[in-house]
Write the structure tokens for this entry.
Amino acid sequence: MNALLSRRGFALLSLAAALVYPWVVPNDYFVYAMALAYIFAIAALGLNLILGYTGHLNLAHAAFMAIGAYTVGILTVDYHVPYWIAFALAGVVSAAFGFLAGLVSLRLKHHYFSIFTLCIGIIVYLVIEKADWLTHGVVGIIGIPAPPGIGPIRFESTFAQYHLVLAFLVLGLVLMDRIVHSLHGRAFMAIRNGEPLAEALGVPLMRTKVISFVISVAYAGYAGALYAGFVRFIGPGIASEANAFDMIAYILVGGLGTLSGPVIGTIILSWATQSLQFLQDYRLLVFGPLLILLVMFLPKGIVGTIKAREARVAGRRAA
């Protein structure tokens, strides 16, 4: 009961801090950067489902984020489809491609699965770069409309879009909490802990893994759709494997297989990257070793380490 109250208190305090944040920062750039971090946090939440809860490393996650972004860009700019309809279709299209990719890739085990998904990501990147007739090639898609207003609420300003992205992040967290604490969530964790044991317990392996993969890439697709409407320009770079590795780093730092870990890790590393921009090309020489040290001394991530410490304290008290 105390743990539940503590978790709810932390969630409410974090939400209050996020709502106050735009009012206390000096300019719109800080609001823009934080909203961008929230978008990548949504994508990281999806990756954490397949990686942290199901135990499969998907290196094509950024490619599915790109699919969602390009769905919005192509439909709104080339075919003048209203933004919110394109937004709804973005997650569906990403999930459909994820279903097809999952049927093939999830038959592979361990690093073979990761290598196969890396190949999928490279293929998606090359298609975006070369298919000028569809994706506008290396030029990218310019002039993507911002999300239109809902009733009296308008989203033209950075301030308003920040709260829109925050609302989707909160919704994504609530849905993910329901998923991981459901029977499907327990099945995902059973597969992570050992496929033979999960199968012996009656978990349908292939179907469960495909469900996890589809939900995961749907999160990436909707994050990409938000990214397209927020930045209003997309290029092939969004599908690069570098973005996928960034999201893996976010999860590792925040806490693999934890609900809030991907969000915390994304915010910390996004701002660390922003702070090291003055080093330009040399910032990775500083950022890389810092990340390695953090993973070495906090292998369970920030949230995972805190939870492990709380469990040890509770165990001592019980003894």
Remarks:
- The mean pLDDT is 89.
- The two ends are 19 Å apart (CA to CA).
- Residues 38 and 169 are 7 Å apart (CA to CA).
